[in-house]
Amino acid sequence: MKSILKNINILHSFECAARHQSYSKAAAELCISQAAVSQQMRQLEAAVGSQLFLRKNKQMLLTQQGQTLFYASKQAFSILKKSLNEIKNEGVAGSLTITSTQAFTSLWLMPKLHKFLAQHPEIKIRVLSSAGFDDLKQQHIDLAIRFCANVKESTDAEYVCEYFGEDPVYPVCSPQLADTQNFHAPADLLQTWLVSLENPGAYDWASWFESAGVKAYREHQQWTHVHSTDMALNAVLSGHGFTLAARYLCIEQLESGQLMIPVNIPHPNVVKRYLVFDANTVKIARLKIFTDWLKSEMEVQTPAATLMTQSGLG
Fold first, then answer.
1. Splitting the chain (314 residues) into consecutive groups of 10 residues, what average pLDDT does each group show?
2. Segments forming the whole domain that contains residue 7
3. 29 shares its domain with 41
4. Pick from 96, 244, 111: nearest CA to 169
5. Which of 28, 148, 175, 253 places its Cα 20 to 30 Å from the Cα of 259?
6. In sequence order, what are the beta bridge partners of 77?
7. Model pTM?
8. How far apart are CA 192 and CA 236, in angstroms?
């Protein structure tokens, strides 16, 4: 047992393998081979005299003894990491790597990022886009900004998953299209093209029409399917039908009159916003500065009367 405690790498490998329930994912995070992880786990099991993992398909599930050791090792490494990071805290100046959806990064973040950098030129921002839930540790990501119904369930327990508001989703179109036809009721949208994401998730046209009591959408033939919301909004801005979009993604276009909401009925599902990050990161000072700015910017709401007028409803 003393030999295991002297070799902290084996316990670190165990914590990583137990957290991922996978030797291959642990190997990728630790930058060693899967065979090395497997060998270390055999050594650990021999030292403690108990089986720690059970293989089920591609997963390595923990035995009761494995769960006991995982809880203890997780707590121990968390305390060590927090203490080391407090000693090593990098302060405000430095870099941050941020990931979010393609639509958010291209439509909201990039157009506003210059304002943050003007206030904090000492912070260098690297932006990535991804539709999935990235492995923050493996990809060296400091902050994930996510918009989904299942963010909490999809986030590893070692990370903070902070809810910071929600936004309604509306059907939007260009004023040029609105001038050509009368759109007053939900069924009127079936007179034109409907732009939909290939994988719309909870914010689909079917749910919107069903909540509005319209069944005829099932026979609608004019559909355009795209990969992301920014593509959908670009199509709609050029006059190509309607798309469903969260208000935060197109609020500037609504304010400027480039987009309208002729039928003021929101989608039954709202978009919830989350910040996902490691609370013990050495970059916590600059991370807090960025997230405070982000929350402040997203809390700025256009007065309802202005939106109504510019949506053609006033």
1. 72 92 91 92 91 89 93 86 66 92 94 96 94 80 89 83 94 96 95 95 96 97 95 96 96 94 96 93 94 91 42 39
2. 2-88
3. yes
4. 244
5. 148
6. none
7. 0.69
8. 11
